[in-house]
Amino acid sequence: MDQYPKDIFTENDDIDPYTLDNLGPLSGMAGVWRAFGGEDIAPKADGPDKSIFSERFELQPIDPQSNGPQLFYGLRYHQQVLKRGENGLFHDQIGYWLWEPATDTVIMTLSIPRGQTAMAIGKAKPDAKTFQLTARRGETVNGVCSNPFLEHAFRTEEFRIDITKHDDGSWSYDQTTFLKVLGQDALFEHRDHNRLKLIAKAKPNRAALKADAEKKRLAKKASRESVDA
């Protein structure tokens, strides 16, 4: 791919350790978020079933990640969804949101304890307020992998998620999973959407904390030297 250099081994030695300052379109999404009134439309034997849910969505910055010359800044996330009237988690999901500045690429990985993983990819400018990511069954760079039962009975053909960042600091998602349900001719559009509000700020990533500690050490050293002089 011509957007990458011929040298695929040498890593960038001038990397900004402050992930929160380098998230591009993911800026403003770090932290701990809560939301109520989300809507889920899922397939059932007698037709679509609509559920209302609340959720907690935590996104914390990770240290910059390199694949040779490729560089990512990102957020590790954990999404926990509770359906109204139930005690156990309705949905539990973990993964990463990644931003590649060199190619204006956003990646989301996901894994759920139903035996399914996916990686969705999209393009966005650093200051984008809205962007879309997609994953498709059979693709090798933005694909979907399911356990044998899901592949047999509720096969995911495509996953799509749209993100919108709002002027009040909240952000929302609208996602659709296109399912081939056993015995049904048409694809079922399994939809989820919600709008999240911040309840706690993100913690700085480890490399950022180390950089701050080094700055303080050097400042103290400079102060002592000026006094001695």
Explain the overall architecture.
The protein is mainly beta. It has a single domain, classed as Calycin beta-barrel core domain (Lipocalin, Beta Barrel). The chain is built from two helices and eleven strands; from the N terminus they run ββββββββαβββα. Strands 7-9-10-11-1-2-3-4-5-6-8 form an eleven-stranded antiparallel β-sheet. β3 and β4 form a beta hairpin. The longest helix is centred in the last third of the chain and has 23 residues. The chain is globular and about 85 Å long. It starts with 30 loop residues before the first strand and ends with a helix. 21% of the residues are buried.
Q: How many angstroms does the end-to-end distance come to?
A: 56 Å
What sort of overall outline do the alpha carbons produce when their principal axes are compared? Answer: globular
| Strands, count | 11
CATH-wise, what's the superfamily?
A: Calycin beta-barrel core domain
CATH-level-2 architecture: Beta Barrel
Please identify the top-level CATH class: Mainly Beta
Instruction: List unreliable stretches of 5+ residues.
Output: none
**Overall tally of domains:** 1
Mean pLDDT: 94
Helical stretch count?
2
What about the largest sheet?
A: 11 strands, antiparallel
Concise structural overview:
The protein has two helices and eleven strands; from the N terminus they run ββββββββαβββα.
